[in-house]
């Protein structure tokens, strides 16, 4: 439409090209008239006039031709304008038709938009309704979990009381171990003082031996002088000199041996102090492990209590919705729980047997107090039986609750709760095994302490006996 309008505008411009020759002719005529006025009249002027007439005739012919062409163009322009007007009217009609089509399309789009808005509102309403149903189901499940958690909390409290009694007994054992370690440290200090006194006595003996050596030297010089005087007693005195030299050598050997014994006793005292430090560290580690085990057992018991409470609440609310098929599924779940319990008991027995074998092969000092270890093992087995009884009771109650809670909506939740309960029981068994290991370590430390005290006592008795014996008996010499 814009291109046709520009074309029409260009065609409507005035064509001034045919008029330009007329203007040129007028200018020539004006110039020639002025020249005629200025020039004189003669034949030359006539010739020139004739030539000018010929030229003017030619110019007139040309002008006529140009006027005809301009006239023809003027006749053609109205037709052209009529054509352009027709084209513009056609374009106007086409634009009106397009405008009506656009109006119809806009109306259809408005109706479509209204339909889409209504559909969107319906979808939003359905989504809100589905969310409302989901929240209602979640609310019901949370209520069931709360009821089960309350019930499990009651059982957990009883279990916690039992664990507290066990922990108190273990605390008493650790206190006894600490007292034994303090006694052992006092004995080591006494042994150090005894070693210092022995060193002082050895120095006194060495000084006496030096004095004896000096006196023997003097006697040797006297013997040499007497040999010059008494040649008869030469052999006897030579024998005495030989005996005295042997005696001196034996004294030197005894001195060296005593020095070695002193060094060995010092090294042994250092080693025993290191052993005592390791034993104290072991006792501290045992205490830390016992505290950690207590905390973990409390967490596990709280977890089991929450799970049990959730089961009980679900059973109280869904007791009226029983079906025979669901009862069969609950019975199968109960059998699975019993199988899991049996497998856990077998694993606990295997760990106990492995711990007993390892403790027997770990240190030969366990034969000293076999009766005490057997009593402690019997107590631990009784505790294990009590805890296993509690676990079996919880598993049986879990099976009874599973019959009530085995609806299609809560079946998945029941399985997850079973798994969580099994994990909690496994954690409790692991904590119990760690507590048994800590008790066995404490027993080994006590036995090692007793063995060290016995060895120190034997060494002290041997040293006292050596100090009491005379030097001649020690060396087995005869003068």
TrEMBL record:
Transmembrane domains' residue ranges: none
GO terms (BP aspect): chloroplast accumulation movement; chloroplast avoidance movement
Tree of life domain: Eukaryota
Polar residues: compositionally biased ranges: 354-373
GO cellular component: cytosol
Sorted UniProt keywords: Coiled coil
Keyword Coiled coil in annotation: yes
Family the entry assigns: Belongs to the WEB family.
Source species: Quercus rubra
Region annotated Disordered, chain positions: 343-373
Name of this protein: WEB family protein
Coiled coil region boundaries: 99-126, 248-296, 414-462
């Amino acid at each position: 439409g814009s291109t046709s309008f520009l074309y029409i505008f260009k065609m409507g411009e005035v064509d001034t090209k045919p008029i330009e020759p007329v203007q040129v002719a007028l200018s020539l005529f004006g110039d020639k008239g002025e020249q005629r006025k200025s020039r004189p009249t003669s034949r030359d002027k006539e010739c020139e006039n004739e030539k000018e007439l010929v030229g003017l005739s030619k110019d007139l012919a040309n002008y006529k031709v140009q006027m005809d062409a301009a006239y023809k163009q003027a006749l053609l322009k109205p037709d052209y304008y009529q054509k352009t007007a027709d084209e513009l009217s056609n374009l106007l009609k086409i634009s009106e038709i397009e405008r009506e089509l656009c109006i119809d399309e806009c109306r259809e789009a408005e109706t479509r938009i209204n339909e889409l808005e209504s559909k969107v509102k319906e979808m939003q309403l359905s989504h809100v309704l589905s969310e409302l149903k989901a929240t209602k189901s979640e609310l019901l499940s949370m209520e069931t979990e709360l009821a089960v958690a309350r019930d499990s909390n009651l059982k957990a409290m009883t279990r916690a009381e039992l664990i507290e009694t066990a922990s108190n007994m273990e605390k008493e054992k650790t206190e006894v171990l600490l007292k034994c370690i303090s006694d052992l440290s006092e004995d080591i200090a006494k042994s150090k003082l005894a070693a210092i006194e022995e060193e002082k006595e050895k120095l006194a003996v060495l000084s006496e031996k030096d004095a004896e050596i000096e006196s023997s030297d003097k006697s040797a010089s006297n013997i040499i002088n007497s040999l010059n005087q008494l040649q008869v007693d030469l052999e006897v005195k030579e024998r005495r000199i030989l005996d005295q030299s042997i005696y001196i050598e034996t004294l030197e050997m005894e001195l060296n041996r005593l020095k070695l014994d002193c060094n060995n006793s010092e090294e042994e005292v250092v080693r025993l102090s290191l052993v005592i430090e390791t034993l104290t560290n072991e006792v501290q580690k045992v205490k830390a492990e016992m505290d950690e085990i207590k905390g973990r057992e409390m967490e596990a018991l709280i977890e089991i209590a929450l799970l049990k409470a959730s089961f009980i609440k679900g059973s109280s609310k869904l007791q009226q919705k029983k079906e025979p098929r669901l009862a069969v599924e609950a019975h199968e779940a109960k059998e699975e729980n019993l199988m899991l319990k049996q497998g856990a008991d077998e694993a606990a027995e295997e760990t106990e047997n492995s711990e007993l074998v390892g403790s027997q092969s770990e240190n030969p000092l366990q034969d000293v107090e076999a009766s005490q270890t057997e009593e402690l093992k019997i107590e631990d087995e009784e505790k294990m039986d009590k805890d296993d009884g509690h676990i079996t009771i919880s598993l049986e109650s879990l099976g009874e609750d599973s019959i009530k809670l085995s609806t299609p909506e809560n079946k998945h939740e029941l399985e997850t709760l079973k798994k969580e309960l099994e994990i909690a029981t496994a954690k409790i068994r692991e904590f119990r095994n760690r507590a048994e290991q800590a008790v066995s370590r404490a027993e080994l430390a006590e036995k090692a302490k007793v063995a060290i005290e016995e060895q120190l006592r034997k060494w002290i008795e041997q040293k006292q006996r050596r100090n009491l014996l005379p030097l001649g008996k020690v060396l087995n010499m005869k003068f």
